[in-house]
Structure of Triosephosphate isomerase:
Amino acid sequence: MISRPKLVVANRKMHGNLSDNRQFMESLLRHTQQHAAHYAICPPHPYLYQAQQLLQGSHIAWGGQNMSRFERGAYTGSVSPLMLREFGCQYVIIGHSERRQRGHDNDESCGERFEAALNAGLTPILCIGETLDEYEQGETDLVVVRQLNPVISHVGIEAIAKGVIAYEPVWAIGTGKAATPQHAQAILSFIRGHIGLLNEAVAEVTTLLYGGSVNPSNAAQLLSMPDIDGGLIGGASLIAEDFIQICKIANQLTETKLAA
Ligand SMILES: O=C[C@H](O)COP(=O)(O)O
């Protein structure tokens, strides 16, 4: 068992339908099998039952795209961590910029939900990253620390390793303009270093992902960076062949790491 096998997560956002999801998941099951890398798919919530039916007992995990910090109650339109667990979810995405930008999520609520996810036995995938303006002002480090610190304060540094952190520069999401492997590596190394200031062992084992216009052509370069432990894939998870290619790249890199 190596530390930090590559993890590839499909964030299908608000896309897909029953028949398209079925084709996607069946294709993934057929073409990836049990690999050294880890794979997960986060469909829109109504399709979690379908994911459970198709993926249960397989090597592919599934998860939600968001969740409430509450277990139950009068929160119309929300989904609780217990509900995600009941549908077999292993993962849940927290703090995606598409939710932060619309005012649904903030740094403080991410801490609460990161904790609620862990309490429910889910692995939270915390999304952080700067806007274009912040990037141009050279504020990336400040922003990721501002987004990460409330979560660390809320759950304690040891709990950070039980989740996953995804660095997703907002300017790279859905634009076709991925961060360069050097930029993504520099920021993820900075994030690992920031965690390491508090606990080196936690920093060493925490899974860090990059997300933002990852596709089959740039995945190998991005995912071979030492601090990039995988990808959170949006657009390229809508086409099964593209996503499978990224999974295979991640697997090859994991096998190389295993053999080293
Ligand atoms: O969660 C996934 C990210 O928002 C990346 O999306 P993208 O691959 O379409 O840029």
